[in-house]
Structures are given as C-alpha cells and as structure tokens.
Amino acid sequence: MIHSLFIINSSGDVFLEKHWRSVISRSVCDYYLEAQRANPNDISPVIATPHHYLISIQRGGVSFVAVCMEEIPPLFVIEFLHRVVDTFQDYFSDCTESIIKENYVVIYELLDEMLDNGFPLATESNILKELIKPPNILRTIANTVTGKTNVSEVLPTGQLSNIPWRRTGVKYTNNEAYFDVIEEVDAIIDKSGATVFAEIQGYIDCCIKLSGMPDLTLSFMNPRLFDDVSFHPCVRFKRWEAERVLSFIPPDGNFRLISYHISSQSVVAIPIYVRHNLSIKTGEQGRLDLTVGPKQTLGRTVEAVKIEVLMPKCILNCVLTANQGKYNFDPVSKILHWDIGRIDVTKLPNIRGSVSIASGSNTAEINPSINVHFTINQLAVSGLKVNRLDMYGEKYKPFKGVKYITKAGRFQIRM
C-alpha cells in the first residue's frame, strides 16, 4: 500500500519523511516538485513515475506526498492523507511546518500507529488519544526527566470492540450535542447575471459530549435534497437507505458526520450579486465600477465579504474610491482585493474609479473575472432543515443545538 510519506514545505524542501515497507530515496519527490513548478495552482494529485506512484495533497502551505509501488485506488490514499492532517490539527491545533518540527517525536509515534506495514490501522482520534497522549508542557517535562514517551502501555478500550470510534466509560457533567450544517456554494455567473453553473458542497460537523454509550437518530425535513452523500463509519447505512434518517453511536468530541452534494441548479439559490462595469479604451484610462448586494438571503446578513478582481495584464494601476471597506491592487499579479466585511442593505458597498492602461496594448480580448467570498450565518442556502434529534440508550436529557452557515466556495462572476 503506502511505502513512504514525505512532507514538503513551500520552499520545496523535504523536512519529514517516514518509511514503512522499504526506504525510498527522497529524490523521488523531484517529480512532484517539477509538477509544482510547472503549475503551482493546479498540481495533479496523482503523478506516475517509472517505478512509483506519487499521491499528494496540499494543506496549510505544506504538501503531503505518499509514495506507492503498485496501483491503488487514489481516493483511498488521499482520504488517508487528509485524515493524517486532521489528526495533527486535533493534537496540535494547527498543521504548519513550524508546528510539525516542534512535535517530531509525537508525529512519528502517530504515523507508526496510523499505518501498519503500509496499511491504515488506527485513524480514529479517540483511539489515537488513548494510545498516544496529546502533548502538553507538564507531560513534555516529565517525559524529558524520566525518559518515557507519550505512548500508552494499555490497549484502547474501543480498539477491539465493534464500535472502535468511541471509547468506553465516557462521563460529562454537562451533556451536549451540537451540529453545524455548513454549505459552500460553487457557482459561475456570466456577464448578464445568468447562472452558468451552480452546486452546493455541504457537510455536518458535530461536537458531541455525551456520557455513556448514547444511540442518536437525526432526521431532516427534506432529506430528498441530497444528491450524493458520504458518511462517517458510525452511521448505519441500511437505515439511511430505508428511512432517510441518520442513526449512529457518535464518537466522543468533534467529527464530520456527513458530507453531501447538491447539483440541482433549481435548488441552488445565489445569495449575492455584483453589478460590474469595466470600460477600457485603447491607450486611454479606463473606468471601473462595482456594486455588491444581497440576493435571496431570507433577510439574513451577508458577512465577511471579500472581492478579488482578476484584472487584464494591460492594467498598470488603479485609483479607486470605496464607500465601504479597504482595497489594494497588486501590480505584479494584477489582482484587485476589496475587503468589504458586512453588507449594509441601506447603503450597498460600491467601489469606483479609474484604471491606467499600458500604451499600445490590445484591449479587444479582455475577459476579467471576479472571485467572491462571503459568509451567511443561520442560513442553509439549499433549504435543508434538521427536524429532530432523538437519543436512546441513556436516561439523561442532553442540551441540543443546530447552527446553519452558508459560505462561498468557488464563486466566480465573469465580466
């Protein structure tokens, strides 16, 4: 399966390597670095070399490159690499080059437990935290003095059960279950404002702090909205197929219960619009005028709005006036950044002014585009609603909460 793992920083240096089945020279990463130099924004996740397959992900400015010797389902390896990064974030709160370097010992211990002879073994956070204690200052000092490690001498209680994602004997004074329904809107809007393409990538993140061994059932008002779903292993798939309800014994703590996809454009409401006008005349100054406003938000406020305008190469500079937020123009990358923040419907954000054009440039074929970022709280743009959460197997009454968030995914407007 996976023979080696290389972790590479943004400068192209391998700063951590781990081998399971055989030692592979780090020179194999040259194929990956070559692909990265050729197209840094769109690196192929699978690179075939004469003797190996390189399967990679990029997160937090760090590249994780797994080396396999034989053909293997690439999504299997990609999912495992994401699970590795999620585990590092769970242990160390982030996964950057500096944090990995500070925690080399714990990271090697984690990789030893997560993969056995190249095959995934323990990837659940609950099990790993029983096997390898998360680092803290007192434990680090004690280990330095005594020469001990963070590795437990006792096998986790859930490792040999049929519910490996949950440890036994969990107790809380306050029993709580929180669900975050998060939807990301991917869309392409043409010059006239018509939707060329729109879909929703959604997921439900949970924070479960319940005592004992609770059995939960989560039902939705409109479960037929889902086009494509993937579940955490705790979900009983046959029950979902038969009744369209999520029945599960949850892991303890934070986890992703379900990821889903909605591709029906009739369901996808576009929650924001941008009125744009860029007039350019050859050899003269041009004019830019942008106005941003909410649309189909059911009265919710649009927050954290950021606009990125990918300007044509012939634009030298911009002199603009914004009635809200701050802007800056990078003359090298030709990107105009406008940080708006919250949209006030009584006074819509507007930016306008002049743009300088290089003399002698061809302005006939200019196709600038706008990338939009936004967040809307307490709104699931698909209309998805949680109906109820029931708990069986325990006698206490937990506190339950559901939060809805809509974000921009790859949201592009063509000018």
Automatic annotation (TrEMBL):
Taxonomic source organism: Zophobas morio
Q: Where in the cell is it found?
A: Cytoplasmic vesicle membrane; Golgi apparatus
One of the GO biological process terms: vesicle-mediated transport
What family does this chain come from, according to its entry? Belongs to the adaptor complexes medium subunit family.
Its keywords, alphabetically, are: Cytoplasmic vesicle, Golgi apparatus, Membrane, Protein transport, Transport
Task: Write the protein's name.
Answer: MHD domain-containing protein
Name the Pfam families for this protein: Adap_comp_sub, Clat_adaptor_s
Membrane topology label: Peripheral membrane protein
Q: Which InterPro entries does this one have? A: Adaptor_comp_med_subunit, AP2_Mu_C_sf, AP_mu_sigma_su, Clathrin_mu, Clathrin_mu_CS, Longin-like_dom_sf, MHD
Highest rank taxon of the organism: Eukaryota
**Any one cellular-component term (Gene Ontology):** Golgi apparatus
Enumerate the spans annotated as MHD domain: 174-414
